[in-house]
């Protein structure tokens, strides 16, 4: 496989399943009857449809965003042989993310009994190869879960923060604070990928703060990681540029005007999808070729990279 292929759609056909607590509503049907074990939160699941056993990724959406806004990104990752489970943690929320962390932990525990029952009969999740990822405030939640702010029955083996944010700025962290501002203080016992946006720390207009301000953004999260940790920053792209090309509704329209954006979303989304695939292949499947090649030659990425760091 050439490294460029991680930035393209993979070889697996993908089903996108929507699952609600207490009821089972799918965008695509499965041949297996629904499980009686209902998920704690609405789920969007992107899964390969062809036969096989696949690692699993739990993906946490950003603040006041919908999991459906990440449909294209989730399908990109799934097409390379991963099952992606994206809960909708809330519809409306305040600054405190402790309930988010609790809900993410409950969703993770649900995987043990619930996930296999809602997948196609020929698709098997490998929960011994489990990753956790999140975007923006969801990245903070992913770090919190990996750091043990809530207990889970399953063990994560890889952590991915996609432009993670821990508050409005340094000194104004939202509860619970995750950053300690002590270098290499995160005792994670797993590999970490941190993806940053070069424009995330730039104001879109004077009425709103930057979406990923200095002091609480990807740089700070990476600085507190221990080896092995990877840090990639897309120079000319913004905090929401990994979302779907079209995000509908009031919140979807707001995603175009609240944050400084790049010219288009597609390159950033392909980059995020590709680097997540490369990272999971390396740390969940033991194949580091694509990740090493990207480190050695950043120009193969579909975006210009400002930083490529490795601990």
What is the overall pLDDT average?
92
Q: Assign the CATH class.
A: Alpha Beta
Count the DSSP helices: 7
Overall geometric form: globular
Number of strands: 9
Distance between the termini: 26 Å
Low-pLDDT residue intervals, each spanning 5 or more residues = 25-35
Oligomeric composition of the shown chains = single chain
User: In percent, how much strand structure appears in the residues?
Assistant: 15-25%
**What is the assigned CATH homologous superfamily?**
Alpha/Beta hydrolase fold, catalytic domain
Instruction: Report Rg.
Output: 18 Å
How many domains, in number, for the residues? 1
The largest pleated sheet is described as: 9 strands, mixed
Helix content: 25-40%
**Shape-level CATH architecture:** 3-Layer(aba) Sandwich
Overview of the structural elements:
The protein is of the alpha/beta class. The protein has one domain (3-310): Alpha/Beta hydrolase fold, catalytic domain (Rossmann fold, 3-Layer(aba) Sandwich). Helices cover 25% and strands 20% of the residues. The protein is built from 7 helices and 9 strands. The protein has helices at 71-78, 98-118, 137-146, 218-223, 249-254, 266-284, 289-296, and strands at 14-19, 43-48, 52-60, 83-87, 123-135, 158-162, 191-197, 229-234, 305-310. Strands 1-2-4-3-5-6-7-8-9 form a 9-stranded mixed sheet, with helices on both faces. Helix 1 packs parallel to helix 6 (266-284) and helix 6 packs across helix 7 (289-296). The longest helix has 21 residues, at 98-118.
């Amino acid at each position: 496989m050439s490294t460029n292929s991680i930035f393209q759609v993979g070889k697996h056909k993908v089903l996108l399943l929507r699952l609600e607590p207490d009821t089972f509503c799918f965008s695509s049907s499965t041949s297996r009857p629904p499980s009686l074990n209902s998920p704690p939160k609405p789920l969007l699941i992107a899964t390969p449809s062809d036969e096989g056993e696949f690692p699993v990724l739990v993906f946490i959406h950003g603040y006041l965003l919908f999991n459906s806004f990440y449909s294209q990104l989730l399908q990109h990752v799934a097409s390379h042989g991963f099952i992606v489970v994206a809960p909708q943690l809330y519809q409306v929320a305040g600054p405190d993310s402790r309930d988010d962390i609790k809900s993410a932990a409950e969703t993770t525990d649900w995987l043990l009994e619930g996930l296999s029952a809602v997948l196609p009969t020929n698709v098997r999740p490998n929960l011994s190869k489990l990753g956790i990822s999140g975007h923006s405030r969801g990245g903070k939640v992913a770090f919190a879960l990996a750091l043990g702010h809530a207990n889970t029955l399953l063990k994560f083996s890889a952590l991915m923060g996609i432009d993670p944010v821990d508050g409005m700025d340094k000194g104004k962290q939202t509860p619970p604070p995750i950053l300690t501002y002590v270098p290499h203080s995160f005792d994670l016992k797993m590999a970490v990928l941190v993806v940053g946006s070069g424009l995330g720390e730039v104001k879109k207009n004077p009425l709103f703060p930057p979406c990923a301000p200095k002091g609480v953004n990807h740089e700070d999260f990476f600085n507190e990681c221990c080896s092995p940790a990877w840090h990639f920053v897309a120079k000319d792209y913004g905090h929401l540029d990994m979302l779907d090309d079209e995000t509908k509704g009031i919140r979807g329209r707001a995603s175009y005007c609240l944050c400084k954006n790049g010219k288009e979303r597609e390159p950033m989304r392909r980059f995020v999808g590709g680097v997540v695939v490369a990272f999971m292949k390396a740390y969940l499947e033991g194949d580091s070729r694509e990740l090493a090649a990207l480190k050695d030659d950043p120009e193969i990425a579909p975006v210009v990279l400002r930083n490529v760091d490795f601990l």
